[in-house]
Amino acid sequence: MQKLWFFLIAAVLMTSAVAAQNAPKYLTRDGKLKFDATATSSPEKIEALSNSATCVLDAGTGEMAWQVLLKGFKFEKALMQEHFNENYVESDKFPKATFKGRITNLSEVNLSKDGTYNAVVTGKMSLHGVEKDITANGAVTVSGGKIRINAGFSLLLSDYNISIPSVVSQNIAKEAKILIDATLEPKQ
Amino acid sequence: MKKVYLLSFFFLPVFLHAQGDDLLSMLGDEKTTDYATASFKTNRVVNGHSLENTAKGVLDTKFSHRFNPLRQGLYDIFGLDGASIRIGADYGITDRLMVGAGRSTYEKTIDGFVKYKILRQSTGARNMPITLAYVADIQLNTLKFEDPTRDNKFSDRVAYTHQLLIGRKFSRSFTLQLMPTLIHRNLTSSPNDKNDVMAIGAAGRIKLTKRVALNAEYYFVPDGQLEAAYVNSLSIGFDIETGGHVFQLHFTNSPYMTYKGFVTETQEDWFFKNDEGKMLSGIRFGFNISRVFTLVKPKIQ
Does ipTM top 0.85? Predict the structure, then answer.
Protein backbone atom coordinates (compact mmCIF):
# COMPACT_ATOMS: atom_id res chain seq x y z
CA MET A 1 0.00 0.00 0.00
CA GLN A 2 2.74 2.37 1.01
CA LYS A 3 4.54 1.56 -2.20
CA LEU A 4 1.44 2.42 -4.14
CA TRP A 5 1.29 5.86 -2.50
CA PHE A 6 4.84 6.50 -3.41
CA PHE A 7 4.11 5.48 -6.91
CA LEU A 8 1.11 7.76 -7.15
CA ILE A 9 2.90 10.81 -5.74
CA ALA A 10 5.86 10.16 -7.96
CA ALA A 11 3.59 9.83 -10.96
CA VAL A 12 1.82 13.13 -10.19
CA LEU A 13 5.08 14.96 -9.74
CA MET A 14 6.51 13.40 -12.85
CA THR A 15 3.60 14.56 -14.96
CA SER A 16 4.03 18.11 -13.72
CA ALA A 17 7.72 17.85 -14.50
CA VAL A 18 6.97 16.52 -17.94
CA ALA A 19 4.43 19.30 -18.45
CA ALA A 20 7.05 21.89 -17.57
CA GLN A 21 9.38 20.30 -20.05
CA ASN A 22 6.74 20.27 -22.72
CA ALA A 23 6.58 24.04 -22.66
CA PRO A 24 9.95 24.70 -24.23
CA LYS A 25 12.27 27.52 -23.42
CA TYR A 26 13.68 29.61 -26.20
CA LEU A 27 16.87 31.58 -26.02
CA THR A 28 19.40 33.63 -27.88
CA ARG A 29 22.80 35.08 -27.08
CA ASP A 30 23.14 37.27 -30.15
CA GLY A 31 20.07 39.46 -30.13
CA LYS A 32 20.46 42.89 -31.69
CA LEU A 33 19.74 45.82 -29.46
CA LYS A 34 19.99 49.32 -30.85
CA PHE A 35 20.05 52.39 -28.74
CA ASP A 36 19.42 55.87 -30.12
CA ALA A 37 19.57 59.03 -28.03
CA THR A 38 20.08 61.55 -30.80
CA ALA A 39 18.36 64.83 -30.03
CA THR A 40 16.47 66.41 -32.94
CA SER A 41 18.90 69.34 -32.95
CA SER A 42 22.02 67.18 -32.78
CA PRO A 43 24.59 67.45 -35.55
CA GLU A 44 25.89 63.96 -34.80
CA LYS A 45 24.19 60.62 -34.38
CA ILE A 46 24.23 59.30 -30.86
CA GLU A 47 23.46 55.67 -31.36
CA ALA A 48 24.99 52.31 -30.65
CA LEU A 49 24.40 48.67 -31.33
CA SER A 50 24.97 45.52 -29.36
CA ASN A 51 24.95 42.20 -31.16
CA SER A 52 25.11 40.17 -27.99
CA ALA A 53 21.88 40.75 -26.12
CA THR A 54 20.73 37.57 -24.42
CA CYS A 55 17.11 36.60 -23.99
CA VAL A 56 15.25 33.63 -22.54
CA LEU A 57 11.55 33.05 -23.12
CA ASP A 58 9.46 30.45 -21.36
CA ALA A 59 6.83 29.50 -23.92
CA GLY A 60 4.64 27.91 -21.26
CA THR A 61 4.27 30.91 -18.97
CA GLY A 62 5.23 33.77 -21.29
CA GLU A 63 7.94 34.81 -18.88
CA MET A 64 10.91 36.46 -20.48
CA ALA A 65 14.26 37.82 -19.38
CA TRP A 66 16.78 40.00 -21.18
CA GLN A 67 20.32 40.91 -20.43
CA VAL A 68 22.86 43.07 -22.23
CA LEU A 69 26.41 44.05 -21.33
CA LEU A 70 26.74 47.81 -21.63
CA LYS A 71 30.39 47.58 -22.65
CA GLY A 72 29.20 45.56 -25.64
CA PHE A 73 27.58 48.60 -27.26
CA LYS A 74 29.55 49.75 -30.29
CA PHE A 75 29.46 53.38 -31.34
CA GLU A 76 30.80 54.89 -34.52
CA LYS A 77 32.93 57.27 -32.49
CA ALA A 78 35.35 55.70 -30.02
CA LEU A 79 35.25 58.74 -27.78
CA MET A 80 31.46 58.64 -27.63
CA GLN A 81 31.69 54.99 -26.63
CA GLU A 82 34.14 55.89 -23.87
CA HIS A 83 31.91 58.69 -22.61
CA PHE A 84 28.86 56.39 -22.71
CA ASN A 85 30.63 53.88 -20.46
CA GLU A 86 32.50 56.34 -18.25
CA ASN A 87 30.10 59.23 -17.77
CA TYR A 88 26.58 58.05 -18.50
CA VAL A 89 25.86 54.38 -17.77
CA GLU A 90 29.00 53.91 -15.63
CA SER A 91 29.49 50.38 -16.86
CA ASP A 92 32.31 49.67 -14.38
CA LYS A 93 29.80 50.04 -11.56
CA PHE A 94 26.73 48.73 -13.40
CA PRO A 95 27.94 46.39 -16.15
CA LYS A 96 24.55 45.04 -17.28
CA ALA A 97 21.10 46.18 -18.18
CA THR A 98 18.43 43.57 -17.50
CA PHE A 99 14.74 43.15 -18.03
CA LYS A 100 12.51 40.56 -16.38
CA GLY A 101 8.88 40.35 -17.29
CA ARG A 102 6.16 38.41 -19.06
CA ILE A 103 3.97 38.50 -22.12
CA THR A 104 0.69 39.72 -20.65
CA ASN A 105 -1.53 38.75 -23.58
CA LEU A 106 -0.25 35.20 -23.92
CA SER A 107 -3.74 33.99 -24.87
CA GLU A 108 -3.42 35.94 -28.12
CA VAL A 109 0.11 34.75 -28.83
CA ASN A 110 0.31 31.15 -29.95
CA LEU A 111 3.97 30.30 -29.66
CA SER A 112 3.45 26.80 -30.99
CA LYS A 113 1.85 27.91 -34.27
CA ASP A 114 3.54 29.75 -37.11
CA GLY A 115 2.38 33.31 -37.52
CA THR A 116 2.97 36.89 -36.42
CA TYR A 117 1.41 38.11 -33.22
CA ASN A 118 1.31 41.40 -31.35
CA ALA A 119 2.66 40.93 -27.86
CA VAL A 120 2.52 43.21 -24.86
CA VAL A 121 5.34 42.71 -22.42
CA THR A 122 5.41 44.14 -18.92
CA GLY A 123 8.17 43.85 -16.39
CA LYS A 124 11.07 45.37 -14.55
CA MET A 125 13.87 47.13 -16.36
CA SER A 126 17.12 47.49 -14.46
CA LEU A 127 19.72 49.98 -15.64
CA HIS A 128 22.36 52.12 -13.92
CA GLY A 129 21.35 50.74 -10.54
CA VAL A 130 17.69 51.74 -10.94
CA GLU A 131 14.77 49.33 -11.39
CA LYS A 132 11.59 50.53 -13.06
CA ASP A 133 8.40 48.96 -14.40
CA ILE A 134 8.02 49.26 -18.13
CA THR A 135 5.61 48.03 -20.78
CA ALA A 136 6.53 47.52 -24.41
CA ASN A 137 4.69 46.40 -27.52
CA GLY A 138 6.32 44.17 -30.02
CA ALA A 139 5.83 41.71 -32.81
CA VAL A 140 6.42 38.04 -32.19
CA THR A 141 6.94 35.94 -35.30
CA VAL A 142 6.85 32.18 -34.95
CA SER A 143 8.35 30.38 -37.88
CA GLY A 144 10.01 27.00 -38.29
CA GLY A 145 10.36 26.45 -34.56
CA LYS A 146 12.07 29.80 -34.03
CA ILE A 147 10.65 32.88 -32.39
CA ARG A 148 11.62 36.29 -33.65
CA ILE A 149 11.01 39.31 -31.47
CA ASN A 150 10.89 42.86 -32.82
CA ALA A 151 10.14 45.59 -30.36
CA GLY A 152 10.73 49.25 -29.76
CA PHE A 153 10.28 51.37 -26.69
CA SER A 154 11.70 54.46 -25.03
CA LEU A 155 13.46 54.99 -21.75
CA LEU A 156 13.52 58.35 -20.04
CA LEU A 157 17.20 58.66 -19.09
CA SER A 158 16.46 60.72 -15.99
CA ASP A 159 14.37 57.82 -14.67
CA TYR A 160 17.61 55.86 -14.43
CA ASN A 161 19.65 58.64 -12.83
CA ILE A 162 21.53 59.25 -16.07
CA SER A 163 22.07 62.98 -16.13
CA ILE A 164 22.87 64.95 -19.27
CA PRO A 165 25.08 68.01 -18.79
CA SER A 166 23.64 71.18 -20.29
CA VAL A 167 26.62 71.49 -22.69
CA VAL A 168 25.50 68.41 -24.60
CA SER A 169 21.72 68.70 -24.06
CA GLN A 170 21.47 69.92 -27.66
CA ASN A 171 22.90 66.59 -28.79
CA ILE A 172 21.60 63.98 -26.38
CA ALA A 173 17.87 63.35 -26.23
CA LYS A 174 16.10 63.04 -22.89
CA GLU A 175 14.62 59.76 -24.04
CA ALA A 176 16.58 56.91 -25.53
CA LYS A 177 14.85 54.81 -28.14
CA ILE A 178 15.54 51.11 -27.87
CA LEU A 179 15.01 48.78 -30.80
CA ILE A 180 15.20 45.04 -30.43
CA ASP A 181 15.58 42.38 -33.07
CA ALA A 182 16.26 38.91 -31.74
CA THR A 183 15.62 35.41 -32.99
CA LEU A 184 15.22 32.83 -30.27
CA GLU A 185 15.82 29.14 -30.76
CA PRO A 186 14.55 26.29 -28.61
CA LYS A 187 16.89 25.39 -25.79
CA GLN A 188 18.54 22.06 -26.48
CA MET B 1 18.00 1.35 -3.32
CA LYS B 2 14.42 1.64 -4.35
CA LYS B 3 13.86 4.43 -1.86
CA VAL B 4 16.69 6.46 -3.25
CA TYR B 5 15.25 5.95 -6.67
CA LEU B 6 11.88 7.14 -5.51
CA LEU B 7 13.35 10.12 -3.69
CA SER B 8 14.93 11.29 -6.89
CA PHE B 9 11.43 11.57 -8.33
CA PHE B 10 10.60 14.07 -5.65
CA PHE B 11 13.60 16.18 -6.31
CA LEU B 12 13.42 16.17 -10.08
CA PRO B 13 10.48 18.59 -10.28
CA VAL B 14 12.09 20.77 -7.61
CA PHE B 15 15.14 21.19 -9.78
CA LEU B 16 13.03 21.97 -12.78
CA HIS B 17 11.08 24.53 -10.85
CA ALA B 18 14.19 26.25 -9.57
CA GLN B 19 15.27 26.75 -13.17
CA GLY B 20 12.05 28.52 -13.99
CA ASP B 21 12.54 30.94 -11.14
CA ASP B 22 15.24 32.90 -12.83
CA LEU B 23 15.36 32.51 -16.55
CA LEU B 24 18.59 34.43 -16.79
CA SER B 25 20.41 31.90 -14.66
CA MET B 26 19.75 29.42 -17.47
CA LEU B 27 22.12 31.34 -19.65
CA GLY B 28 24.93 30.80 -17.22
CA ASP B 29 27.83 33.17 -17.04
CA GLU B 30 29.02 33.81 -20.50
CA LYS B 31 32.79 34.14 -20.61
CA THR B 32 33.73 37.41 -22.21
CA THR B 33 36.92 39.41 -21.83
CA ASP B 34 36.48 42.80 -20.25
CA TYR B 35 39.37 45.11 -21.12
CA ALA B 36 40.21 48.02 -18.83
CA THR B 37 39.38 51.24 -20.63
CA ALA B 38 39.89 54.93 -19.96
CA SER B 39 42.82 54.49 -17.58
CA PHE B 40 43.76 58.02 -18.60
CA LYS B 41 41.65 60.64 -20.38
CA THR B 42 44.06 60.78 -23.29
CA ASN B 43 47.22 59.14 -24.61
CA ARG B 44 49.58 61.53 -22.77
CA VAL B 45 49.95 62.05 -19.04
CA VAL B 46 51.53 65.49 -19.39
CA ASN B 47 54.66 65.27 -21.55
CA GLY B 48 55.09 61.53 -21.87
CA HIS B 49 52.80 58.78 -23.04
CA SER B 50 50.05 57.23 -20.94
CA LEU B 51 48.68 53.67 -21.11
CA GLU B 52 45.96 54.79 -23.50
CA ASN B 53 46.07 54.62 -27.27
CA THR B 54 44.15 56.55 -29.87
CA ALA B 55 41.38 54.27 -31.11
CA LYS B 56 41.45 52.73 -34.56
CA GLY B 57 40.63 55.18 -37.32
CA VAL B 58 40.78 58.21 -35.01
CA LEU B 59 43.00 61.25 -35.52
CA ASP B 60 43.97 63.05 -32.35
CA THR B 61 45.37 66.52 -32.92
CA LYS B 62 47.56 67.98 -30.19
CA PHE B 63 48.21 71.60 -29.55
CA SER B 64 50.57 72.20 -26.64
CA HIS B 65 52.21 75.15 -24.93
CA ARG B 66 54.67 75.48 -22.08
CA PHE B 67 55.04 79.03 -20.87
CA ASN B 68 57.87 80.88 -19.17
CA PRO B 69 58.33 80.35 -15.42
CA LEU B 70 55.66 81.91 -13.24
CA ARG B 71 58.25 83.71 -11.12
CA GLN B 72 58.32 87.05 -12.93
CA GLY B 73 54.74 87.63 -11.90
CA LEU B 74 52.62 90.26 -13.61
CA TYR B 75 55.60 91.70 -15.51
CA ASP B 76 55.58 88.54 -17.64
CA ILE B 77 51.87 87.75 -16.96
CA PHE B 78 53.10 84.75 -14.96
CA GLY B 79 55.07 83.47 -17.93
CA LEU B 80 52.40 83.79 -20.59
CA ASP B 81 54.57 86.24 -22.55
CA GLY B 82 56.73 83.45 -23.87
CA ALA B 83 55.90 79.93 -24.89
CA SER B 84 57.47 76.76 -26.15
CA ILE B 85 55.03 75.09 -28.55
CA ARG B 86 54.44 71.66 -29.99
CA ILE B 87 51.83 70.93 -32.63
CA GLY B 88 51.23 67.33 -33.50
CA ALA B 89 48.82 64.62 -34.49
CA ASP B 90 48.37 60.99 -33.52
CA TYR B 91 46.51 58.31 -35.43
CA GLY B 92 45.25 54.88 -34.43
CA ILE B 93 46.04 52.26 -37.07
CA THR B 94 44.48 49.56 -34.93
CA ASP B 95 43.20 49.74 -31.37
CA ARG B 96 46.66 48.58 -30.25
CA LEU B 97 48.97 50.30 -32.72
CA MET B 98 49.24 54.05 -33.10
CA VAL B 99 51.63 56.47 -34.74
CA GLY B 100 52.16 60.17 -34.28
CA ALA B 101 54.30 63.11 -35.27
CA GLY B 102 54.88 66.65 -34.15
CA ARG B 103 56.87 69.81 -34.56
CA SER B 104 58.22 71.79 -31.62
CA THR B 105 59.66 75.27 -31.44
CA TYR B 106 62.49 74.02 -29.21
CA GLU B 107 65.43 73.22 -31.52
CA LYS B 108 62.86 73.27 -34.36
CA THR B 109 62.35 69.63 -33.52
CA ILE B 110 60.40 67.18 -35.61
CA ASP B 111 59.41 64.03 -33.77
CA GLY B 112 57.66 60.84 -34.72
CA PHE B 113 56.70 57.75 -32.77
CA VAL B 114 55.13 54.32 -32.90
CA LYS B 115 53.31 52.93 -29.89
CA TYR B 116 52.09 49.39 -29.49
CA LYS B 117 50.07 47.81 -26.70
CA ILE B 118 51.70 44.45 -26.04
CA LEU B 119 49.45 43.45 -23.14
CA ARG B 120 46.06 44.85 -22.24
CA GLN B 121 44.71 44.75 -18.71
CA SER B 122 41.60 42.59 -18.65
CA THR B 123 39.32 40.39 -16.58
CA GLY B 124 36.96 37.60 -17.54
CA ALA B 125 37.85 34.92 -20.07
CA ARG B 126 41.34 36.40 -20.34
CA ASN B 127 42.86 37.68 -17.14
CA MET B 128 45.70 40.18 -17.34
CA PRO B 129 46.66 42.32 -14.36
CA ILE B 130 48.60 44.98 -16.26
CA THR B 131 48.84 46.89 -19.48
CA LEU B 132 52.22 46.89 -21.21
CA ALA B 133 52.99 49.19 -24.09
CA TYR B 134 56.12 50.03 -26.05
CA VAL B 135 56.95 53.42 -27.49
CA ALA B 136 59.69 53.99 -30.06
CA ASP B 137 60.31 57.65 -30.76
CA ILE B 138 62.71 59.49 -33.01
CA GLN B 139 63.39 63.19 -32.93
CA LEU B 140 65.25 65.44 -35.26
CA ASN B 141 66.80 68.82 -34.44
CA THR B 142 66.43 70.95 -37.56
CA LEU B 143 68.26 74.07 -36.38
CA LYS B 144 71.06 75.32 -38.65
CA PHE B 145 74.37 73.91 -37.48
CA GLU B 146 76.02 76.36 -35.08
CA ASP B 147 79.51 75.84 -36.45
CA PRO B 148 79.51 75.32 -40.23
CA THR B 149 83.27 74.63 -40.21
CA ARG B 150 82.78 71.52 -38.09
CA ASP B 151 82.29 68.17 -39.83
CA ASN B 152 78.51 68.25 -39.37
CA LYS B 153 76.58 65.09 -40.12
CA PHE B 154 72.87 64.54 -40.46
CA SER B 155 73.06 61.85 -37.75
CA ASP B 156 74.13 64.55 -35.27
CA ARG B 157 70.59 65.85 -35.38
CA VAL B 158 68.93 62.61 -34.33
CA ALA B 159 67.91 61.24 -30.93
CA TYR B 160 66.01 58.03 -30.23
CA THR B 161 63.82 57.01 -27.33
CA HIS B 162 62.67 53.54 -26.33
CA GLN B 163 60.12 53.35 -23.58
CA LEU B 164 58.02 50.72 -21.87
CA LEU B 165 54.78 51.68 -20.19
CA ILE B 166 53.80 49.25 -17.46
CA GLY B 167 50.68 50.14 -15.60
CA ARG B 168 47.40 49.21 -14.09
CA LYS B 169 44.03 50.84 -13.64
CA PHE B 170 43.57 49.89 -9.98
CA SER B 171 40.08 51.28 -9.65
CA ARG B 172 37.62 53.43 -11.51
CA SER B 173 39.50 56.51 -10.43
CA PHE B 174 43.09 55.43 -9.79
CA THR B 175 45.73 54.47 -12.37
CA LEU B 176 49.47 54.07 -11.89
CA GLN B 177 52.21 53.44 -14.44
CA LEU B 178 55.98 53.04 -14.56
CA MET B 179 58.03 54.02 -17.57
CA PRO B 180 61.55 52.64 -17.95
CA THR B 181 63.07 54.84 -20.63
CA LEU B 182 66.24 54.77 -22.73
CA ILE B 183 67.22 57.85 -24.68
CA HIS B 184 70.06 57.76 -27.17
CA ARG B 185 71.48 61.02 -28.45
CA ASN B 186 73.88 60.80 -31.34
CA LEU B 187 75.46 64.08 -30.32
CA THR B 188 75.54 65.56 -26.83
CA SER B 189 76.25 69.15 -25.91
CA SER B 190 79.07 68.21 -23.54
CA PRO B 191 81.46 65.27 -23.27
CA ASN B 192 80.21 64.79 -19.69
CA ASP B 193 76.77 63.90 -20.99
CA LYS B 194 76.34 60.25 -21.87
CA ASN B 195 74.94 59.40 -25.29
CA ASP B 196 72.69 56.77 -23.72
CA VAL B 197 70.61 58.00 -20.84
CA MET B 198 68.55 55.62 -18.74
CA ALA B 199 65.59 57.07 -16.89
CA ILE B 200 62.64 55.72 -14.97
CA GLY B 201 59.35 57.53 -14.99
CA ALA B 202 56.32 57.18 -12.76
CA ALA B 203 52.90 58.62 -13.44
CA GLY B 204 49.42 58.39 -12.04
CA ARG B 205 46.00 59.82 -12.24
CA ILE B 206 43.15 60.25 -9.82
CA LYS B 207 39.71 61.00 -11.16
CA LEU B 208 38.20 63.87 -9.22
CA THR B 209 34.83 63.93 -10.97
CA LYS B 210 33.48 62.14 -14.02
CA ARG B 211 35.09 64.68 -16.30
CA VAL B 212 38.07 66.00 -14.34
CA ALA B 213 41.19 64.07 -13.37
CA LEU B 214 44.42 64.95 -11.57
CA ASN B 215 47.60 63.69 -13.25
CA ALA B 216 51.21 63.61 -12.07
CA GLU B 217 54.32 62.57 -13.93
CA TYR B 218 57.93 62.33 -12.77
CA TYR B 219 61.03 61.24 -14.67
CA PHE B 220 64.05 60.26 -12.60
CA VAL B 221 67.47 60.18 -14.25
CA PRO B 222 70.03 58.33 -12.08
CA ASP B 223 73.23 60.30 -11.38
CA GLY B 224 76.35 60.12 -13.49
CA GLN B 225 74.69 60.35 -16.87
CA LEU B 226 74.11 64.06 -17.29
CA GLU B 227 75.82 67.31 -16.34
CA ALA B 228 74.83 68.46 -12.87
CA ALA B 229 72.95 71.40 -14.36
CA TYR B 230 70.18 69.09 -15.58
CA VAL B 231 67.35 68.17 -13.25
CA ASN B 232 64.44 65.73 -13.19
CA SER B 233 61.14 66.63 -14.76
CA LEU B 234 58.04 66.85 -12.57
CA SER B 235 54.60 67.78 -13.81
CA ILE B 236 51.21 67.94 -12.13
CA GLY B 237 48.08 68.75 -14.02
CA PHE B 238 44.37 68.47 -14.55
CA ASP B 239 42.65 66.72 -17.42
CA ILE B 240 39.33 68.36 -18.21
CA GLU B 241 37.16 66.61 -20.71
CA THR B 242 34.39 68.29 -22.68
CA GLY B 243 32.54 66.77 -25.66
CA GLY B 244 35.31 66.13 -28.16
CA HIS B 245 38.22 67.91 -26.46
CA VAL B 246 40.50 67.08 -23.59
CA PHE B 247 42.12 70.10 -21.98
CA GLN B 248 45.22 69.26 -20.01
CA LEU B 249 46.28 72.17 -17.81
CA HIS B 250 49.44 71.64 -15.83
CA PHE B 251 52.34 72.94 -13.85
CA THR B 252 55.75 71.65 -14.81
CA ASN B 253 59.43 72.53 -14.64
CA SER B 254 60.08 71.39 -18.25
CA PRO B 255 59.60 73.76 -21.14
CA TYR B 256 60.02 70.90 -23.63
CA MET B 257 57.53 68.32 -24.83
CA THR B 258 59.72 65.71 -26.51
CA TYR B 259 61.56 62.94 -24.65
CA LYS B 260 65.10 64.18 -25.25
CA GLY B 261 63.99 67.61 -24.08
CA PHE B 262 62.07 67.01 -20.90
CA VAL B 263 63.95 63.94 -19.68
CA THR B 264 67.53 65.02 -20.37
CA GLU B 265 67.51 68.81 -20.78
CA THR B 266 65.26 70.22 -18.06
CA GLN B 267 67.28 72.87 -16.25
CA GLU B 268 65.24 74.31 -13.40
CA ASP B 269 63.73 72.45 -10.48
CA TRP B 270 60.35 73.33 -9.06
CA PHE B 271 62.33 75.17 -6.38
CA PHE B 272 66.06 75.87 -6.62
CA LYS B 273 68.78 78.25 -5.46
CA ASN B 274 70.45 80.35 -8.13
CA ASP B 275 74.19 81.11 -8.19
CA GLU B 276 73.71 83.93 -5.69
CA GLY B 277 71.92 81.60 -3.29
CA LYS B 278 68.51 83.12 -3.94
CA MET B 279 65.54 80.80 -3.83
CA LEU B 280 63.68 80.67 -7.15
CA SER B 281 60.96 78.58 -8.68
CA GLY B 282 61.08 76.94 -12.08
CA ILE B 283 57.38 76.18 -12.16
CA ARG B 284 55.71 76.91 -15.46
CA PHE B 285 52.13 76.78 -16.59
CA GLY B 286 51.33 74.79 -19.69
CA PHE B 287 48.53 73.09 -21.55
CA ASN B 288 47.81 70.40 -24.10
CA ILE B 289 44.61 70.54 -26.08
CA SER B 290 43.58 67.29 -27.65
CA ARG B 291 40.80 67.10 -30.21
CA VAL B 292 39.75 63.85 -31.85
CA PHE B 293 38.31 63.30 -35.31
CA THR B 294 36.92 59.97 -36.41
CA LEU B 295 38.39 59.50 -39.88
CA VAL B 296 37.48 55.89 -40.46
CA LYS B 297 34.19 54.80 -38.95
CA PRO B 298 34.07 51.23 -37.68
CA LYS B 299 31.56 48.99 -39.45
CA ILE B 300 28.53 48.52 -37.27
CA GLN B 301 25.76 46.42 -38.82
Answer: no
